[in-house]
Write a structure and sequence with these properties.
Blueprint: E1 4-7, E2 20-21, E3 28-29, E4 31-35, E5 42-45, H1 51-58, E6 73-79, H2 94-104, E7 108-112, H3 125-137, E8 143-146, H4 150-159, E9 163-166, H5 176-180, E10 185-189, H6 207-224, E11 232-235, H7 244-252, E12 263-266, H8 272-278, H9 287-298, E13 304-307, H10 310-323
Parallel strand pairs: 6-7, 6-13, 7-8, 8-9, 9-10, 10-11, 11-12, 12-13
Antiparallel strand pairs: 1-4, 2-3, 4-5
C-alpha cells in the first residue's frame, strides 16, 4: 500500500533537535503524518522517513521566474475578461492596473483572457490572444499567462510572458507540453473537468491523496517531455471541481504537496468557499477571508499566493514574516 507523508509544519523560532527546514525556507518540521488510503494517519519522526522522501521535503526550491522561493511571494491576478467571477470587466485600463499591482508588491502578474469560473463558456484562442497580448507587450517584470491553450501560451511567451499557468495542468491541449518547454516556469493546477461541468457533484475517494496522485502523474509527464521539476509549481485548485469540504481539506493538508519536490501556489483569493463559510456573497468583499486562507497556506510553507488584493496581502505577509522572525 502506498505511503504519503504530510509534514507537520512549525513556525516557532525555537527548534528542537531533529528539526529540519522545509524546502529550504524559514519553516521547519520534526514530525510527519504518515498516511495510507483507508487508514487513520500515524505521526512519525522526520528522521524515520525514507531518504528520498525527506530529500524532497527539505531540498531548497530554486527561483521561479527570478523570484526567490525562500520567502512568500505574490502573484497578482489580472483578468482581461468580461465575465471572471470577481474582477471581470473591472479593469478599463489593464496595463495601468498591472503596473499598480507591481507597485503594491506583486512579484508576478498572471494575465488571463478566458474565465475559468464555474459554468464559464469556452473562449476561442484568437479572442484570448487579442485580449492578452497587448497587455503583455506593454509590461515589464515577471508575467504569467493564464490559459489552457497552447497557441495562446506560445503567443504570450513570444511577447514576454515567463510562466505558463494552466488550470488543466497541460492536459487540455496536446501541444501544451511542447510550448511549456519554452517557458521559464510552469504552474500545474488541479481541476476536475472543464468549467462548464466541474461543479456538477464533484467526488473524490480522498481529495488530498487524489490530488497528490494527479500531480505525480502530471509531473512524470512533464519530466518525460523535458520539463524539469524545479521549473514547475503546483496549485491544488481551490474551487475547481471541489465542494466546500474538499477545499477546506486541501487547505488544511496542503503541506503534503511539498513531497512532490515543487514550489506550491495557493489561489484562494475571493473564492466561493469564503462565502459558504462566512456568508459573504459579494466576491469583492472577501478580502479578510482571502487573507485568512492565505496565512493558513503560509503557515504550511506555501511559497506563492495568487491574489486580487495586492497591497493588503503584502501588508499581511510582511507582518507574518516579522512574526516568525524572518
Amino acid at each position: 500500500m502506498k505511503d504519503y507523508f504530510r509534514p507537520i509544519v512549525q513556525t516557532d523560532t525555537s527548534r528542537p533537535l531533529g528539526a529540519v527546514k522545509l524546502a529550504g525556507g524559514p519553516l521547519w518540521f520534526d514530525r510527519v503524518e504518515k498516511m495510507q488510503r483507508g487508514k487513520a494517519g500515524e505521526i512519525v519522526p522526520a528522521f524515520e522517513l525514507p531518504k528520498a522522501v525527506l530529500d524532497r521535503l527539505i531540498k531548497p526550491r530554486k527561483d521561479i521566474c527570478g523570484i526567490p522561493m525562500q520567502h512568500p511571494s505574490i502573484m497578482g491576478i489580472l483578468n482581461v475578461t468580461p465575465d471572471s467571477f470577481s474582477d471581470g470587466g473591472l479593469h478599463q485600463d489593464p496595463v495601468a492596473a498591472a503596473k499598480k499591482m507591481q507597485q503594491q508588491g506583486a512579484d508576478i502578474i498572471d494575465i488571463g483572457g478566458e474565465s475559468t469560473r464555474p459554468n464559464a463558456e469556452y473562449v476561442d484562442s484568437d479572442i484570448e490572444i487579442e485580449r492578452t497580448l497587448p497587455v503583455i507587450a506593454q509590461l515589464d517584470g515577471p508575467l504569467s499567462i493564464d490559459t489552457r491553450k497552447a497557441n495562446v501560451a506560445a503567443a504570450a511567451i513570444t511577447a514576454g510572458a515567463a510562466m505558463f499557468n494552466d488550470v488543466t495542468a497541460l492536459s487540455f491541449d496536446p501541444d501544451s507540453m511542447k510550448i511549456a518547454k519554452k517557458a521559464e516556469a510552469v504552474c500545474l493546477m488541479h481541476s476536475a473537468g472543464p468549467p462548464e461541468t466541474m461543479q456538477d457533484n464533484p467526488s473524490y475517494n480522498n481529495v488530498l491523496l487524489d490530488v497528490f496522485d494527479y500531480f505525480e502523474t502530471r509531473l512524470r509527464a512533464c519530466e518525460a517531455a523535458g520539463i524539469p521539476r524545479h521549473k514547475i509549481m503546483v496549485d491544488p485548485g481551490i474551487g475547481f471541481g471541489k465542494t466546500v469540504e474538499h477545499n477546506l481539506k486541501l487547505i488544511r493538508g496542503i503541506s503534503i504537496f511539498h513531497g512532490l519536490g515543487c514550489a506550491i501556489l495557493l489561489g484562494a483569493s475571493r473564492k466561493s468557499v469564503i462565502h459558504r463559510v462566512a456568508n459573504v456573497p459579494d466576491a469583492r468583499q472577501r478580502f479578510a477571508g482571502s487573507v485568512a486562507l492565505g496565512l493558513q497556506g503560509l503557515n504550511q510553507g506555501v511559497q506563492m499566493l495568487r491574489v486580487h488584493d495586492i497591497g493588503e496581502t503584502k501588508q499581511a505577509i510582511d507582518l507574518w514574516r516579522a512574526g516568525i522572525g524572518q
